Amino acid sequence: MVSSYREMEDKWQRTWSDRKLENADRDGRKKFMIIFAYPGVTGYLHVGHMRGFTYSDAIGRYKRMTGHNVLFPVGTHATGNGAVTLAHRIMKKEEDMISYLKNNGCTPEKLEGLNGPMAVVEFFNDVYVNDYWKRFGFLSDWRRFTCTLYEDYGMFMKWQFRKLNDSGLLIQKPYFAPACVQCGPVAIDASETDISKGGSAETQEYTLLKFRCGDLFLVAATLRPETVYGQVNFWVNPDVEYVKMKKDNETWIVSPPAAKKLAYQKDGCEVVGTISGKEMVGWMCEAPMIHRSVPVFPAKFCDPNVGTGLVTSVPSDAPDDWISLQDVKNDPLIMKEYGLTKEQIDSAVPISIISMDGYGDFPAKDIIESMGIERSGDPKLEEAKKQVYKDGYHTGRMKDVCGKFAGLRVEDAKDKMRAEMIGSGEAELFYDLNEEVICRCGNPVMIKRVDDQWFINYADEELTKRTSDHCRTMDINPPEYQNNVHTVLEWFRERACVRQGSWLGTKFPFDERWTIEAISDSTLYPIYYIISMYANSKQISAEQMTEPFFDHVILGKGDVGTVSKETGISAELLTKIKDDVQYWYPLDLNLGGKEHMTVHFPTFLFNHVAILPPEKLPKGIMVNWYITKKKDETGKKDKISKSKGGAQPIPGAAEKFGVDSLRLYYAHIASLFVDVEWDEDIVMTYRQRLDRIITMTEELNSIFEMEGTSDVDGWLYSRYGTHMENIHEAMKRFDLRTMAAEVYFEMFNDMKWYVRRGGCSSLAIRDALRTWISAMAPITPHIAEELWEMCGFEGLVSEYEYPEVPPGDTGAEFGETLIRDVISDISQIIKVTGMSPKRVILYTTPQWKVKVMSIALDLVSENRLDIPSLTKMCMSDPEIKGYGKAASELAKKMATDMSRTSNEGRRALLKLNEFEHLSAAAQFIASEIGYKVEVISANAGDIYDPQGKSKAALPGRPAIYLE
RNA sequence: GUGGGGGUAGUCAAGCUUGGCCAACGGCGCAGGACUUAGGAUCCUGUCCUUAGUGGUUCGGGAGUUCAAAUCUCUCCCCCCGCACCA
Fold this sequence. Notes:
The two termini are about 45 Å apart. Mean pLDDT is about 90; it is low at about 630-645. A hairpin with a 2-residue loop joins strand 11 (about 240-245) and strand 12. By secondary structure, the chain is α/β, with parallel strands linked by helices. The longest helix has 24 residues, at about 680-705. Helix 10 packs across helix 13 (about 365-370), helix 16 (about 460-470) runs antiparallel to helix 17 (about 480-490) and helix 30 crosses helix 36. It binds one RNA strand through strand 5, helix 14, helix 17, strand 23 and strand 29.
């Protein structure tokens, strides 16, 4: 018995390592290169992350055992500011950060050393490699480990960007990005890595509308520039103190927060004074596009923090405007308080501008009424606004009053009208976040204009087409993604590929002020694993990895002598590296989590297509779903909680369950393409299963030493042959779940049945064990090695190569199915009748019925089985004809039955002599059911059959009589 | 909004591409039994309803195609995920 999983795991991992099994060097075999998308260095990982990693290792191991030279390199991705943030928090000695590290096994000494971002990265690199990947028994070529922050990796990255530039795929244009006023660019996303508040904020594109009023401009911000034809007045908040802002040689009026935001996006902004909202009420100003003079009215809903704090009024389509205009018109006090004239008030008459499905002339009015909104300030107004905007955008059409835009759909009119107003200088663009976002440092985040931002032009049509075409030739799993990836590629726009600020990563080769960002530096990297080994072993230095170097070893450009001279690398070594690249690339399989489907995989594909020749493009992608957190009692997703144990570190889980139990759990729990809820009890059942398998192997190995053969040997060989066939078939799709089901359940059950049936040939058992254990090696390699050794098989199972399997023999397999069915039927009858019979009599089918079935099967294969044909055929056979009516009835029944189902399995039963087979098994059946069993062939003329049951016997279905 | 994924018996989850060996693999749970035990045991058997091994009704709801549908078509209802500078 295996006394300790840990000991066993260590033992075999040492053995593999001593034998250098994981090292992948070029040789004459067929190669297979597999990676998983390297993880970001974001701290400790949890058991869920091991799912995809484990899959990769198991696939790699399977490929080894089918004669492939397998390269399975790993690395980490540390670009960005994750490590900076981590280091920062550690150095500030933040309490939860420190306890997080300690709880995960970071010693005080190590903690001491975490004094900067690179130290943090190296610390976690070590954790990932040793505590996760090596601990799980991965056969990865550790010599090739690389990290995006390594200097040599950086050289590769610079080369990649030079190549992109050579292809004309790097472009520059202005860009509006969220940035902290202090720290520079930040990412706004739900994980809130960079920020402390506002992870769900979105960037809104406003159109600034300039209303001329003397030499001042009142500047409103709108999301609906297409409604300008409906403008009838202007809103200011009388309680807000606005600012006058110099904008080039104009003077704008906006709210103070807006002035700040604008300064980040536009040149020449300078606050020169203030003006109260109240003062502006009653002014007349000229509305853009329609060039009508409209009055300024007061409204409380103008929020100085949203847009510019000033609003144009389109009462026909904006619920807020409609209801506030009613207030102004109906409340004489307002008119008096702000000194508005009746003329002004009367001039503001809503104009119907857009026709929309389900709405009348004034959609704003309709929605207000249908939602029962009566006063300004009603919180339901927000919802009303969204609804009208949405319906307008999708179903609206511009009416005749909209000049040359009449008849356009709203979504088209929006762009055209905005462009026209920008062109005439009446409008400008402005970006703002729809909720407050605060940086980790505590300062606000706003949208900043970045001039000359570099992009990779993934919108390039030719590149998109080539990439899409290549995808069709790839092996992409799940198949849904194979279909979907084209849409994703199509949808991909230019991607900002560099950023500013104090970020970790490679400097942009064309401008050192920029750092290459995290997605863009992890696209072509699989090929770098082939080269990293030489940098790691110091055979080449980062300085030597120049453009001509990569051009030569990857693209085969340049003369080796010249490159050698330029780089100082020997011609011999250059050729070796170049040959390595030729041998290992293209990448056969890239496996990554589902989050990669819309970002990493597309860029991975694009960059390969852009830079490498067609024969070096990746051949496979596999996407894995997640292990998710267990739901709590209320059905809400709980954190992987400490009480349920899921938060424990990966090494802890390995200790608790055993590595192989976890590996089997990942492989078998579900298809790779569904999320799975983490549940310790389930993992435990996998451990129990492995324990059972170990125990059974031990018993088989020690008990059976018999020479000779037994009746069920053929069956066992056939079954194991069938299972291996199934496994190889499934693994064409890298379907580890099917493989696991075959190995740990089907093969196990068959072995049990073999023994139960009295199978005892030690030769058969050893042959079966060899097959079985070797089939375990990809998923549970440690246990497989242990059992392999226990059985005294030669060498390491990890180095074993699967032999050609003789295909399964359906005839041999059918015999046992028949016995099981018979036992099951007898038990069924006993249960239903409650009888305790003296004995059980089985009547096997008479030969003529077999003949009828055989004829029927022939007809089926010719696709012309029907009742008349079968009857006719049968009646032309004198033997069958002798049975008269029984024969014609059987023909009728069989024709009906068999035309309703497929019949591939039925041929098998023709090969079997049921009487002999069941007679031989009678003893066994008797012992299983606990009653005496007698087998009688219905062929024989004069048989004991008091109830005439024998007539019911059919091929493959003996009649049963309980006495 | 947009693009994608999904709803299968107590539960988790196969099957759906290529309709028929589908009452629907398997795991877990549950029940009964065996063994007899200190082990998160193991081994049998059963687990929709009915029943001498049969038959009936099932695969989100409804309609259709077909000799035949969990699988194909249409429609409706519900759930989940991505949408970018986050890996």
